[in-house]
Amino acid sequence: MLKFIVDYIESISNEDIALRPPGAVPEKEFLNKCIKCNKCLQICPYDSIVTAGLEHGRSFGTPIVKAREVPCYLCMLCPPVCPTGALDNNLLKKEEVKMGVAVINEQTCLPYNGIICRACFENCPIFRKAIILEDEMYPKVVEEHCVGCGICERVCPVESSAIIVKSNHHV
Amino acid sequence: MSLSRRDFLRASALAAAATTLGIGSVFNNKVLAKAGIDKEQFIQDSRGVKWHKSVCRLCGVGCGVMLGVKDGKPFGIRGDKENTINEGLLCVKGFYLNKMISAKNRLLYPMIRKNGKLTRATWDEALDLVATKFSEIRDTHGSDALAFYGSGQAETEETYVANKLFKGHIGTNNVEGNPRLCMASAVGGYISTFGADEPVGTYDDIEKCDMFLLIGSNTAEAHPVLYDRLVKRKKRNPNVKVVIIDPRKTPTNKIADLHLQVIPGYDLAIVNAIAKLLIDNGHTDEQFIKDSVNFSDGKNPITYDDYKKFLKKYTPEYAAEQCGVSPEDIKKAAKLFGEVPRVMTMWCMGVNQRVAGVFLNNLIHNLHLLTGKIGKDGCDSFSLTGQPNACGGVREGGGLSHLLPGHRVVANAQHRKEIAELWNVSPDKIQPKPGKHTVAMFDALGKDIKGMYVLCTNPAQSLPNLSKYLKGMEDAFLVVAESFHPTETTQLADVILPAAFWGEKEGVYGCTERRSQHMAQALQPMGEARWDGFILADLAKRMGYKENFEHFTSAEAIWSEYIKSTKGKDMDLTGAPYSRLKEVRGLRWPVPSVDHPGTTHRFTKGDPYFPEDKAAGRRMYFYTKPDGRAVIYARPDKGPEEKTSKEYPIALTTGRILEQWHTMTMTGQVPELVRAAPEPYVEINPDDAKDLGLSTRDKVRMVTKRGSLIVEAKVIDRPRKGTIFVPWHWPESLTNILTIDAVDPGSKEPEYKVAACRLEKV
Amino acid sequence: MIIASMIVKTETEKVNDIVLKLQKLPNVTTHGVHKENNIIVLVEAESDDKLKEIGRYISSEFEGVYGTYPTFVSGDEEIGLDTAV
Q1: Residues B445, B135, B180, B98: is their CA dihedral positive or negative?
Q2: Which residue, among B185, B123, B276, B108, has the nearest Cα to B751 in the 3D structure?
């Protein structure tokens, strides 16, 4: 009963958590290791990685991914170039990335409101695994397979995306 | 301050509850007064939305939508729960229709090309220029130097006025429309097999069907709401089978029990093989064949035995080899088709956009005629339509170069006479010879054809082998009536006329299942835009045909004249005047009188034109054929026009995706939809990608004999090895410069679905 | 402060009794009976926990209630700031 209120309140408090590039070590360690050298940002062919602004406080100057603008396309070029191991240099397989987990807001997600849409399902790079369509209609995230790249968040045709990647590093 | 905010929240909370319950004012005046909000104002704000009944502007399914209008502006879209087609369900494109109305690049005033540049003009300037130019061309070069190119998205009324003006008054049969590019082969198939266009059954059959055979149709993306009905049918009845014949593993495959993944262009052999197996396995309905079927080799009548002889060649092994599938799968498909009591075959562009399009349509009908699985609940040979009014406006309204309104043809003297009478012109004004078909028309543009009027379509992106036809459009005097600018075509035009968009005009759309539905005008046209029907009638007046067009003062006036042409025809719409259409969720013809409920199955009991006497106990009588019998055709298999070769080893096939539609003039205006499918891409099979060293998001060049194009690769196990799939939506990446403009000899529909190409890593 | 509206669906015969009972609850106001058996209720609660509690209370303790269906919820942020100070 009234479960959605809890969801609602959570959704407010979790706003604006940025994602880290693929292979990022746990947040505390990351902040200690990252020397803000921008190497990952420079090698990214899609300009997915940007520098965190002042609004991110302690993270200012570190690399983040704003999935709604440009998600990570999992080309796996950045982890090996990190000079300090803030990104796991040995991470090469896109399936092993864990930037976060996509969460669907069923209140706004179109199919849950009777509008057929397959955007997140069709564009998911871990195709047919990380996002499945229940009854050929309702998208569901399979947490185990979701790598948190944010492509779904990027393509969602709801005004403020109905699928958002929750960063692994927040908790 | 904080107090008023709280009260505002209280009021909003109540409004939400009221909206949920679907009731009017429940507001406690005290709550509102305390918040300093005028009650009336508040009701206006929260619930002051008026909803108008309409039909979706996009694909051919014909979903009912309600357009909400507030303060004269589009407010929102919701599915029409009372419409039995979609019962309130919509796809993401339809959901954003309201944003297309108020798109940034709506064309708001007429423009004329002056010194090479399109500049703003008044309506009088623009229409006088068009009338003068057209009259001049007609007088110097003859009426066949003019042409009209319309659309399966135009309302029936709009196509009717254009037809009347060009065929009946200017006197040219150069009247075509984009349904030539998508539905012409289906029309050819229905007419040759049954004697009349459009399916026997309706969508109602879906809920009673035991097996769906889908050929060349990605229903899940191209007709999402219908797909949902298939999914529901299968979910509730797990015994329902779905068999797919398609070169791609499309999203529709999710519900498939069996997929025959054919080499593009060779599937005729499979359908013939299924026919052979149906006979061999004893799955035919011999009584039905005896009662209601003739056989033909395409030129002369043949016997059932001749037909069986013809089929000898089509063993499952032969077909399997032709198409690159396993013979066992063909046997399985044929066995299912024969054994289950009720089968619906549905097909789309994969069948129609082929040089053997009409043949393949005939072959599909054969299966249903052999087994008698037609004209009864849950059975049909059912063609899916791509545009919302290709059936209603162009096929029924006669908007092609060989047609006249009400399923008539220009070659028939009696038909010309009837229509000339309705149009109040002399019968010899309508030429007996069909005009040029679409590809021939654009070929002649800038040469024999000097002036063209394009309505509601974008040929400079949608024609096949595009590069060849752009110059003609540049050279000729090109008039384009459009709601959006720029499009690829408006950029080439000499005059562009701002047309009222969906929601800003009244009219009728006729969808796939013979259903005509009324759309209310909910809004005033933006800027100086005017309704296409009025623009054409105005042009007619300026060209000196005032008398026969001045009574067209409303959409209803045009519809009323049009439905007179259907009286007594197989597609009788006389029982569907505006007064009735406004109240109901469409009517399925034949509907000969205002108390007739419409028809679910044609040519059988329940069809008002079914002649019980002539049928004499036979279940079906195809009264549109001279002896009441449909025809099973012995059509040989035929490959694609352009076969793959050493130089061009890959088969290229094109199509649609869910979030975009056609040339994106509409869906490209909605940021949310663009976001969902942002960039052009090509689907490449992982094996082919490996050979070329390609991975997803690499740039790849596709080369055909006609042109080349660079897009992003999407490596995915969807197309068959040796096949690529390219959506054709993005104007910045014109897929159609690659496609071939070879046409079906009967339907003149181009083969968009198969071209030979080669890939190069960039 | 949380402001929420909900629809309380009841057995048709008991709807008036339930309205009376609801009116006795603190921070709850009713806004009419609609379509036979739907009561529109406005709840103002100090916190989301309290809101949940009220919802639970109505659906479990009142005889004849089929269910409560929330339709709107919003926090009164400005009040929140005041109390924080």
Answers
A1: positive
A2: B185
Say if residue B44's pLDDT is above 80. Answer: no
* CB of B627 closer than 8 Å to CB of B699: no
Q: What is the DSSP string of C8-60?
A: EEE-GGGHHHHHHHHHHSTTEEEEEEETTTEEEEEEEESSHHHHHHHHHHHHH
pLDDT in tens, B499-549: 999 999 999 999 999 999 999 999 999 999 999 999 999 999 999 999 999
Low-confidence ranges of chain C (pLDDT < 70): 75-85
Query: Cβ atoms within 10 A of the Cβ of C47, count?
Result: 12
Confidence (pLDDT) at B33 = 47
CATH node for C2-84:
3.30.70.920
Rounded Cα distance, B503 and B518, in Å: 11
- B708-740 per-position pLDDT tens digit: 999 999 999 999 999 999 999 999 999 999 999
Nearest CA in chain C to B24: C34
Total domains in the fold of chain A: 1
Whether chain A has a CB inside 8 Å of the CB on B227: the answer is yes
**Region for residue B326 given its phi and psi (left: phi exceeds 0; alpha: psi -120 to 50; beta: otherwise):** beta
Residue A8 counted as domain residue: no
For chain C, the residues whose C-beta falls within 8 A of a C-beta of chain B are 1, 3-7, 29, 31-32, 34-35, 38, 40-42, 44, 69, 71-74, 76, 78-79, 82
E-strand spans in A55-99? Answer: 63-65
- B523 near B514, Cβ under 8 Å? no
Does residue B231 belong to the interface with chain A, where contact is any CB pair within 8 Å? yes
Domain containing A66 equals 15-167
What is the spatial distance between Cα B307 and Cα B387, in angstroms, rounded to a whole number?
36
**Subunits that touch chain C (at least 3 Cβ pairs < 8 angstroms)?**
A, B
Interface confidence, given as ipTM, is 0.81
Q: B672 and A157: CB-CB below 8 Å?
A: yes
Query: Does residue A1 belong to any structural domain of this protein?
Result: no
CA distance B386 to B223: 8
Distance in angstroms (rounded) separating the CA atoms of residues B391 and B407: 11
What are the catalytic residues of B? 93, 182-183, 349, 386-387
Burial of B645 from C-beta contacts in 10 A (0-12 / 13-18 / 19+) = exposed
